[in-house]
From TrEMBL:
Any one Gene Ontology cellular component term annotated for this protein: chloroplast
Organism: Erodium foetidum
InterPro entries (UniProt xref): PGR5
GO MF annotation list: electron transfer activity
Protein name as it appears in the record: Proton gradient regulation 5
Transmembrane segments: none
Gene: PGR5
Length: 124
């Protein structure tokens, strides 16, 4: 289902149905009677974000990273990882300054470093 604006300024839509309910009269009442009384419809339960890393166990350095995280603890490990990433970004920035690369090229190098880190298992 989508809508597009045509060249003449009108709105074109692929929706050809009705905004009303299709359950009217006897159909609705029959459906309501078929649902057991103990079934209640309420606010959906909140799903918590998954804490498992998609890079877990992938890459050459992943086992070392996982063992280190288990030894020093997740909180301390994330602090150290953040400092290492910040330091690496500074090195990339200094390198870009020395060769005269602009900000867009610098961002590209930082993205490339992140992809390489994921492939090697540093972000496990």
């Amino acid at each position: 289902m989508g809508a597009w604006v045509c060249a003449r300024g009108g709105l074109v839509s692929s929706f050809h149905g009705s905004w009303g309910t299709s359950m009217v009269g006897d159909d609705y009442h029959a459906l309501m009677q078929s649902v057991p009384r103990h079934v209640t419809v309420g606010k959906p339960s909140r799903s918590w974000p998954c804490c498992k890393n998609v890079n877990e166990g992938k890459g050459v350095f992943a086992p070392l990273v996982v063992v280190t995280r288990n030894i020093v603890g997740r909180r301390r490990f994330n602090q150290l990882r953040g400092k290492a990433i910040a330091l690496h970004s500074q090195v990339i920035t200094e390198f870009c300054k020395s060769i005269g690369a602009d900000g867009k090229q610098r961002q590209g190098l930082i993205r490339l470093a992140k992809k390489n880190g994921e492939r090697l298992g540093f972000l496990a």
